Amino acid sequence: MVDKLLESLNSSKKEIDELWTKEAERRLRDIKTGKVKTIPGDNVFKEIGEKFNL
Question: What percentage of the chain reaches a pLDDT higher than 90?
Answer without folding.
Answer: 65
